[in-house]
Amino acid sequence: MNMDLLLLQILNIIIGTIILAPILWFVGKALVGREKARFTDALWIMLLGQVVGGLFNFAFGSIFSGFIASVIAFIIQLLIWLGLIKHFFDTGWGTAFVIAIIAVIVAAIVFAILAMLLIGLGILTGLLW
User: For residues 36 and 69, what is the distance between their CA atoms, to the nearest angstrom?
Assistant: First the structure.
């Protein structure tokens, strides 16, 4: 494996955890309460979800290829994430699904705002061009 790719993956895990864990925590806290949704739980969900999901995706992608394999890998990764939310936030599958959907929507909004700010500042455009 290329060391640059490994470093990029590790950086992706760290930045993803730092940015997405607070979003997941706020959404979880709003839906299941402060007692069940702790910030450390959100950190564990993000960290484990990215590491386990990434390892699974790498292993599954090495064995199979094609669109159907990608769909199956996505479904299994989704179940891993939902299982982690269900376990750490001590909730049911339905609530875990709602937490995941709302967290994805909020994250998309946050990333869009960040992208607009970075483009406005000229930072992102310099990186893209």
Answer: 35
Q: Two tokens at 27? A: 């959404």
Contact 2, 81 (CB under 8 A): no
What is the C-alpha to C-alpha distance for residues 34 and 31, in angstroms, rounded to an integer? 9
The pLDDT tens digits of the residues spanning 34-56 come to: 899 999 999 999 999 888 877 87
Size (the chain), residues: 129
Q: Kindly report the CA angle at 10 between 9 and 16, in degrees rounded to 5? A: 85
Question: How many beta carbons lie within 10 A of that of residue 99, not counting itself?
Answer: 24
Which one, of 40, 50, 39, 43, lies nearest residue 13 by Cα? 50
Average pLDDT over residues 114-129: 70
Domain boundaries defined on the chain: 3-128
Q: What gap in Å lies between CA 127 and CA 74, rounded to an integer?
A: 29
The neighbour count for residue 5, using CB atoms within 10 Å, is 9
* Angle in degrees, CA 105, 109, 114, rounded to 5: 145
Structure tokens at 15: 């930045």
Fill in the DSSP letter of residue 122. Answer: T
